[in-house]
Amino acid sequence: MTRIVAGESAVPRRKRAVEAALAIGLVLLIALGAVVASNISRDASAEAAPPSPTPAEELKLGYFGNLTHAPAMVGVKQGILARNLGTTRLSTETFNAGPAAIEALNAGAIDATYIGPNPAINSFVKSRGESVSVIAGAAAGGAQLVVKPEITSAADLRGKTLASPQLGGTQDVALRAWLSAQGYKTNVDGSGDVAINPTDNAQTLKLFQDGKLDGAWLPEPWASRLVLQAGAKVLVDEKDLWDGSLSGKAGEFPTTILIVNKKFAAEHPDTVKALLRGHAEAVAWLNNAPAAEKADVINSALQESAGAALPADVLARSLQNVIFTVDPLAGTYPKLLKDGVEAGTTKQADIAGLFDLRALNGVIGTGQRISAAGLGLD
Asked: In 136-242, where does DSSP find H-type helix?
């Protein structure tokens, strides 16, 4: 039964009741929608947020069986790198020269590598800055042009055949740049006023001993091996070509650096930092270890990575020519790029962004700071 009050009909009252019920329902729907929207928003935010960087399960590291790569060899042999990497498994691969290591890095076969600066520059240029970052130096110095004893000056090189470790490698570019400064023309196909045959270092030693090469621009220990084991003489010590105006360190030029694949570094920054801790420790060990212990460890590492230890005189001469340092000497890179362009092994480009030394500077602390010379982050 509906009770009717004077002056009011039953229909409007029922209408107001329905309207009130509808209003309450609308409020509830809005509230429910807000809750659902909030949950959806949180879910979307969770999906949009990038995953937290985690240490890599494995770090694949490249290096050469050269004395200039001693930080890598010692770091591996002494367990320094593996210890600093912690739970990340370390695997290694050895190369003869830079371009081959760059190919492996770009193909994903390795994640980081010790290498000469020119192949790193070339990779950076070709990829428009997307491929690699230079994250530390490893060695400076330790490269020479050694020749037959009868060659006494640059004038004697016309028509001669010289070797370098690999086309586009750091010593190959240095040789071509020096010959150009002497007025000689060289071509990447081996023709020109002086023929340059990129050759495996071990094969270079044999060819020189057999009289089939007139000389070679080589890193240590190969320059010392040709001098002490094959009778070569030094025509050019590359340290004499660097006056320090670009790096602030006279006689120093980058021979070996440490680079990393940019994608790997972005995904595993903690692993890169751990690698750098081990690298810095290996460099410090090389600079502080007693001479006899250093020689034993290096020779043992060379036996494993290159297949043969060095005679004591070769090792001693080689070590005198090399400086182990975490500084990549970034100020020298514009000249290295220019030399590569003139040699025909790379293209002119802007190399700003080549360096990322932030993790290195974090590892070595505030006592010193390594500069990227305006070519990246430090």
From this structure: 170-181, 201-209, 222-230
pTM of this structure: 0.84
C-alpha–C-alpha distance, residues 357 and 136, integer Å = 7
Q: β-strand 161-164 against 195-198: which pairing, if any?
A: parallel
Residue in 174, 119, 181 with CA at minimum distance from that of residue 142: 174
Helix, strand or coil, per DSSP, at residue 66: coil
147 CB-near residues (< 8 Å, 6+ apart): 157, 162, 214, 215, 232, 233, 235
Run of H or E including 60: strand 58-64
Which tokens belong to 167? Answer: 């086309």
Name 114's bridge partners. 258
3-state SS class at 134: strand
> What is the per-residue pLDDT across 310-348, written as a single tens digit (0 to 9) for each?
999 999 999 999 999 999 999 999 999 999 999 999 999
Neighbours of 202 (CB within 10 A): 15
